[in-house]
Amino acid sequence: MASKAFLIALAIVATIVAPTRAKEIVVGGKDGWMLGMDYQAWADGIEFHVGDTLVFNYKPGAHNVIKVNGTEFKLCAAPLGAAPLTSGHDVITLAAPGRKWYICGVADHCHTGPMKFAITVQPGLGSPSPAPALTPPKPDAGAATGFGPSKTLSWLIAALAAFMMITA
Ligand SMILES: *[C@@H]1O[C@H](CO)[C@@H](O)[C@H](O)[C@H]1NC(C)=O
Ligand SMILES: [Cu+2]
């Protein structure tokens, strides 16, 4: 009986913890991708990890999204032959760690918006690290992402669920 409860608790934990590892990050929050917003200030307040997705929401035709390199970012110049994302709900998966740059390629929005921001993608939270449960958390990981507290919450909920299963 108790082992069944434990398995159910484990399933609950897996369901709750998994989504906290890969986040869907909506650029600009509810304002979306538009003119007149400081996207660099927005981005600087967020930790990006491999596996997270960036979502750009805007009215199709009004804007677009182009991934550029550092030089192009400074110049607000899209690379020749770049194929901008134009759907109005563009989803980009952050597949590799490192510095990434995004701009709007419509008119002079990159300069005047300024519709541009740079981010640094950290390695994924759930990616290859031996014995993650036994290694102490890195001082910088978790604290800012809310991963720690939400994991604690998950275990509390799982423990409660297990308790209810046993006493039911
Ligand atoms: C950025 O891409 C351009 C081509 O559009 C290339 O000439 C330039 O060297 C690249 N810069 C960096 C820093 O990779
Ligand atoms: Cu634009």
TrEMBL record:
Residues 1-22 form the signal peptide. It is a single-pass type I membrane protein. The keyword Transmembrane applies. One of its GO terms (biological process) is response to symbiotic fungus. InterPro entries: Cupredoxin (IPR008972), Phytocyanin-like (IPR039391), Phytocyanin_dom (IPR003245). One of its GO terms (molecular function) is metal ion binding. Residues 23-123 form the Phytocyanin domain. One of its GO terms (cellular component) is plasma membrane. Keywords: Copper, Disulfide bond, Electron transport, Glycoprotein, Membrane, Metal-binding, Signal, Transmembrane, Transmembrane helix, Transport. The keyword Signal applies. It is found in: Membrane. This is Blue copper protein-like. It comes from Coffea arabica (Arabian coffee).
